[in-house]
Every structure is written in C-alpha cells, then in structure tokens.
C-alpha cells in the first residue's frame, strides 16, 4: 500500500563488464544504498549485478562464465547484492534499456500486490506509448513506475557511464530517455561537479535531472578493472583491491594475461557496430 | 652456472591501525612487489609485521590496543606472510619507532649457511603462482646452481620500515622525531615508502639533509591505483551509520559491530591529551632550560 511518507522500494541494477569485479564496484552499491536511505524517501531492497554478455565484444573481455563466477564469489558475503545472469547468457549483445525492461517485467510479475489485469492494461498502454515515442521524441512523456507494489528499478553507475551517454553511436537516444525518464539513475562520482556539469550540458539529462541522484564518493578510489588487469599482466599483487575469493579464483584459473587482453582487439564494439549499421541503412 | 643472491627482507609497519583497512594491507603488497621488481630483483621479502602503537601514544580517537591488535589479526588470517606483533602495544610506555625496529631485529633469525636451493624455496613459498610464472617468463633467474655445491654465506634479515609518504614527511614536523632516531631508522635499517600520485616524496627527500644522505636506503614505491582510504574516513563513516563494507575485511567489520568500538565517544578519547612524542620532546626541552 502506498502512503505518503512511506518509503518507496528500490532495486539497484548495475550493468557493466565486471572484468573483473572489484571492491570499487561493490562500494557503488553500499554508497548508493546509504544515500537513498538518507533521503528518507527510499528503501533499497535489492542490488543486482548484471555482467554484460560476450557479444559486447569489448577488448580484453574474458568469458562471461568467469565474470559471473567472480561476481558471485564477490557477493557471497552480501545479504542484499546478487548476480543476475540473464544478460550474460544472451548470445547477442543486449541494450541496457532492454535489460531494464526485462528486469522490470520480472519485478512486476513477482510483486505480491501485482494486479494482473491492471498490468495488462498498463502493458498495452506502454506499447502504444513507446510507439509514439519513436515517432516524436520531443513529445514523449516517459512515465515513472506507479504500479502499486512494484519496486523502482534504478541504474547504478559511475560518472563514466553517465558521460558515455555523449559518445556517438554508443547509445540510442530513446534508450537514454527511457532509462533516465522511466527508471532513473544513481550515479556515484568523485568530484561531483563533473557529473553535475554533464547533466547540465545535456538537454535530455537536464529534463530528467530529478530522476538522477548524484552521490559523492568521499573516499575516492580508482580501483578500475583496467588497472587490475594491468597489474595482473605484470605479475603484481591485486590482493585487498578485490575480494579474497575473487583473487583466489583469478589465481586458480590463471585469468588475465597479455593474451586475454588482446581478445576482440580487431573487432568493433557491438553497440557501435549495430548503431552505425542502422544509421547506414 | 649463475648465482644470484637475494637479500632477505622483513617489512615492519608501525601505526595506529585504528582500525586496520585494506589500504594498510595494500602497502605491504605494493612494497613487496616493488622490492622484488627493482634493482634487478635484489631483495626477497620474507615477512611482513604489523605493529599497532600502544595506548600510551595518546592519539585522539585511539581505541584500546587489545581491539586494534585483535582486528589486525582477523584481517591477516588469510595472509601467509604478514603477521601482527603485539609487543609494542604491550609496553607500559609509548615506544619510539626506532626502539620497535631494534626490538624486532634482535629476534630475527639469521639465515645461516644454507644451500641456494633452500633459500629459493623459502622465497617461492611467499609468492604466488602468478608471480612465479612472471619470473620464469622474464628470465629473471632466482638462483641457478649445480646441486653439488653448497652456499657458504650467512644472511641476516634486513628489517625495513614500511610507511606511507605522510610518515616520511612527518620527519619534518618539529619535535615529533629525534634527529638521531631518523638517522638510525634511515641509515641503519632503511625505509620502504609507498606514495600515491600527487605526493612527491623525492622532493621531500631532496630537501632534507639526513634523508638525502641515505637516499640509497629509501625505496620509493608508487601506488598507481589511487585510493584515499584512511582509517579516519572509516571511523567517520561508522559514526554516521554509513557502510564500510569492502573497505576492510568482513571479519574486522563484524568485530567492530560486535564490540561497538567506534562511536562519537571513542573519537573523543585523548582529546585533551598531548600526543606522547610531543610531550616527551617538550619535557626534554624544559629540562635543558632549568
């Protein structure tokens, strides 16, 4: 039952390579949850890590089953963050907006207060609305989830993902609108001014700025997976930068070498390939 | 037949460890990697020692030593080369760092005549499979010798102080360190200083006569993976009810919760006290004035 003053339930969804997962990724969840709770308006009930599929074809991306295994080991000690394998199991790369639609569907059908009939009507309404959206971007009025009992699904990310919205051919405009307008973003950044500035300079993001929570990370840490892989290639220790179980797993399976970093080196990233092709058609 | 001798090294880190964090443990990993990869692999790091300071240090917010030692022990349960030594924390008075160094070198075990084979296996035990492969690939032979020959040398463990750039720079704070002690620490023992980008320890060394003199005994390791994690930050987060997960080992977090160690009150401990080394120095000055 929704009462004013009652907290809205939220599920945080993080999409990314997780190649490998690091303590920094895990911190994003903790920071986001603390922030949302502090606003008094939200209650974070679940965190989901959704590693990208191999179809993404990013340079140095190792097999999904390893990345999933490591994420599972990393979240073993968490009572609210889990790993979802749906995206990683798809053969072709799946757009983030599609991943959201999939998970939102799951949440809707799982909801205990879910009224099936209401939702069928809602789905039909959504479909019509989406068709309209594709026709006229400016006229689109994405709606927030107001279905009773269904938690809000938000994209959890770093400022780099937010800024990647600006990279040509990496995202479809409609997808950005859907993710930010319908779902919402929790963006963790250090030196929040960069994220704020980027939002300010983008019409779409500015329009939905109330759906974007920028969380300042006061304990900045640059444990990027790229640097981790570099250290590993050079025979250096990465202990205490990732969970112990993940360090052991990497060791045991001998992951991340100069060879693995060359994977997909001559292949174009899936979204770039897909959107450039669409543009050319 | 090539013989490469490696100088065995133990790293000693003194500090509050209030509480121990992933960053503290990273210092050890970085220092070890650095010593192994520089100077054509001159050193072999065989041991790491964490020595939490005694309660008598009177630093603001310092919680009882027994907790700090217990937390460090929990954190290091999974390490096969770093351990906690409670000696310093158990002393009745605060101990100057140089005394702790002297204490530990007294009980270090000299590697008596040992065949190269044995020495190599000691080294191999302390590094991971990955590192072994790296060594093999880079053709940095550790020790190659014929099996018939023995080794006729005695190796004494070199004990070095492991610290961050902030400690190095604290050598410049008036009355915090005694000049003779700095000389002994850097001259006799040696320093491994891990710094983050943005700090310039080399500059600081250059501007100090003592440090410049023993420049060869100061090893500077760089932390490229920027990390501003500090125990102060952790305590702040705890006071504000924020999560500290993934900043320190789960076992330490559980311990803190269980014993309710860090609170607004605990942070006020010693707030009216003077830091012990400063107290001592001013006492010395007063005696001279009489």
Automatic annotation (TrEMBL), chain A:
Q: Which UniProt keywords apply?
A: ATP-binding, Magnesium, NAD, Nucleotide-binding, Nucleotidyltransferase, Nucleus, Phosphoprotein, Pyridine nucleotide biosynthesis, Transferase, Zinc
Keyword ATP-binding on this protein? yes
Q: Which residues cross the membrane?
A: none
Cofactor(s) listed: Mg(2+); Zn(2+)
Which pathway does the protein contribute to?
Answer: Cofactor biosynthesis; NAD(+) biosynthesis; deamido-NAD(+) from nicotinate D-ribonucleotide: step 1/1; Cofactor biosynthesis; NAD(+) biosynthesis; NAD(+) from nicotinamide D-ribonucleotide: step 1/1
Q: Where in or outside the cell?
A: Nucleus
Pfam hit, one: CTP_transf_like
Catalysed transformations (reactions): beta-nicotinamide D-ribonucleotide + ATP + H(+) = diphosphate + NAD(+); nicotinate beta-D-ribonucleotide + ATP + H(+) = deamido-NAD(+) + diphosphate
Q: Classify the main location.
A: nucleus
Q: How does it assemble?
A: Homohexamer. Interacts with ADPRT/PARP1.
Q: A GO molecular-function term, please?
A: nicotinate-nucleotide adenylyltransferase activity
Name of the featured protein: Nicotinamide-nucleotide adenylyltransferase
Q: Per its UniProt record, what NCBIfam families does this chain match? A: nicotinate (nicotinamide) nucleotide adenylyltransferase
> What species does this protein belong to?
Latimeria chalumnae (Coelacanth)
The record places domain Cytidyltransferase-like at: 13-230
Q: Please provide the Gene Ontology terms (biological process) for this protein.
A: NAD+ biosynthetic process
What's any one GO cellular component for it? nucleus
Q: What class of enzyme is it?
A: transferase
Family statement drawn from the similarity comment of this UniProt entry: Belongs to the eukaryotic NMN adenylyltransferase family.
Q: Which gene encodes it?
A: NMNAT1
Instruction: Name the EC number(s).
Output: 2.7.7.1, 2.7.7.18
From TrEMBL, chain B:
Q: Which reaction does it catalyse?
A: beta-nicotinamide D-ribonucleotide + ATP + H(+) = diphosphate + NAD(+); nicotinate beta-D-ribonucleotide + ATP + H(+) = deamido-NAD(+) + diphosphate
Checking InterPro entries in the record gives: Cyt_trans-like (IPR004821), Euk_NMN_adenylyltrnsfrase (IPR051182), NadD/NMNAT (IPR005248), NMNAT_euk (IPR045094), Rossmann-like_a/b/a_fold (IPR014729)
Pathway-wise, it operates in:
Cofactor biosynthesis; NAD(+) biosynthesis; NAD(+) from nicotinamide D-ribonucleotide: step 1/1; Cofactor biosynthesis; NAD(+) biosynthesis; deamido-NAD(+) from nicotinate D-ribonucleotide: step 1/1
Q: Does the keyword Nucleotidyltransferase apply?
A: yes
Q: Which residues form a coiled coil?
A: none
Look up the EC number in the record and give it. 2.7.7.1, 2.7.7.18
One short Pfam name that applies is CTP_transf_like
| Residue stretches making up the Cytidyltransferase-like domain | 12-236
What are the GO cellular component annotations? mitochondrion; nucleus
Q: Which keywords does this Swiss-Prot/TrEMBL entry list? A: ATP-binding, NAD, Nucleotide-binding, Nucleotidyltransferase, Pyridine nucleotide biosynthesis, Transferase
| UniProt cross-references to Gene3D superfamilies, sorted A to Z | HUPs
Alphabetized GO MF terms: ATP binding; nicotinamide-nucleotide adenylyltransferase activity; nicotinate-nucleotide adenylyltransferase activity
* GO BP terms in the entry: NAD+ biosynthetic process
Question: Per the similarity annotation, which family is this?
Answer: Belongs to the eukaryotic NMN adenylyltransferase family.
Q: Per its record, how is this protein called by name?
A: Nicotinamide-nucleotide adenylyltransferase
């Amino acid at each position: 039952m929704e009462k004013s003053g009652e907290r809205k339930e939220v599920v945080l969804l993080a999409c990314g390579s997780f190649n490998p997962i690091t303590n920094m990724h895990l911190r994003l969840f903790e920071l986001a949850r603390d922030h949302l709770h502090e606003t008094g308006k939200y209650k974070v009930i679940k965190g989901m890590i959704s590693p990208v599929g191999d179809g993404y074809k990013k340079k140095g991306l190792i097999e999904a089953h390893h990345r999933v295994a490591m994420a599972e080991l990393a979240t073993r000690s968490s009572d609210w963050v889990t790993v979802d394998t749906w995206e990683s199991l798809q053969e072709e790369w799946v757009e983030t907006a599609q991943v959201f639609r999939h998970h939102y569907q799951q949440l809707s059908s799982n909801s205990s207060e879910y009224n099936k009939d209401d939702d069928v009507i809602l789905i039909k309404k959504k479909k019509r609305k989406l068709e309209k959206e594709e026709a006229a971007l400016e006229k689109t009025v994405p709606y927030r989830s107001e279905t009773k009992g269904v938690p809000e699904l938000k994209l959890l990310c770093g400022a780099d993902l937010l800024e990647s919205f600006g990279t040509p051919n990496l995202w479809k405009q409609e997808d950005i609108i859907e993710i930010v307008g319908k779902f919402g973003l929790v963006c963790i950044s250090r030196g929040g001014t960069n994220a704020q500035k980027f939002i300010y300079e983008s019409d779409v993001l500015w329009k939905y700025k109330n759906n974007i929570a920028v969380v300042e990370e006061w304990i900045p840490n640059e444990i990027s997976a790229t640097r981790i892989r570099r250290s590993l290639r050079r025979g250096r220790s990465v202990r205490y930068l990732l969970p112990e179980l993940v360090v052991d797993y990497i060791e045991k399976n001998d992951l991340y070498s100069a060879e693995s970093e060359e994977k997909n080196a001559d292949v174009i990233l899936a979204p770039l390939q897909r959107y450039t092709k669409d543009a050319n058609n | 037949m090539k013989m490469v001798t490696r100088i065995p090294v133990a790293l000693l880190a003194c500090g509050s460890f209030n509480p121990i964090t992933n960053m503290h443990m990273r210092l050890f990993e970085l220092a070890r990697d650095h010593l192994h990869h520089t100077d054509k692999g001159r050193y072999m790091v065989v041991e790491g020692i964490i020595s939490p300071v005694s309660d008598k240090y009177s630093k603001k917010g310092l919680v009882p030593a027994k907790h700090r030692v217990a937390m460090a022990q929990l954190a290091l349960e999974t390490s096969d080369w770093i351990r906690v030594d409670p000696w310093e924390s158990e002393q009745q008075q605060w101990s100057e760092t140089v005394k702790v160094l002297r204490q530990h070198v007294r009980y270090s075990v000299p590697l008596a005549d040992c065949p190269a084979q044995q020495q190599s296996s000691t080294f191999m035990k302390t590094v991971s499979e990955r590192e072994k492969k790296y060594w093999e690939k880079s053709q940095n032979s550790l020790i190659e010798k014929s099996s018939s020959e023995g080794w006729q040398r005695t190796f004494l463990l070199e004990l070095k102080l492991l610290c961050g750039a902030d400690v190095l720079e604290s050598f410049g704070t008036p009355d915090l360190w005694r000049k003779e002690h700095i000389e002994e620490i850097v001259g006799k023992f040696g320093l491994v200083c891990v710094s983050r980008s943005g700090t310039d320890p080399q500059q600081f060394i250059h501007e100090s006569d003592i440090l410049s003199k023993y420049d060869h005994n100061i090893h500077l390791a760089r932390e490229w993976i920027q990390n501003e994690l500090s125990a102060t930050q952790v305590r702040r987060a705890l006071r504000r009810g924020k999560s500290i997960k993934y900043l320190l080992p789960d076992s330490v977090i559980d311990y803190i919760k269980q014993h309710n160690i860090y609170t607004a009150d605990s942070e006020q401990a010693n707030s009216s006290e003077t830091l012990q080394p400063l107290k001592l120095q001013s006492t010395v000055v007063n005696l001279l004035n009489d």
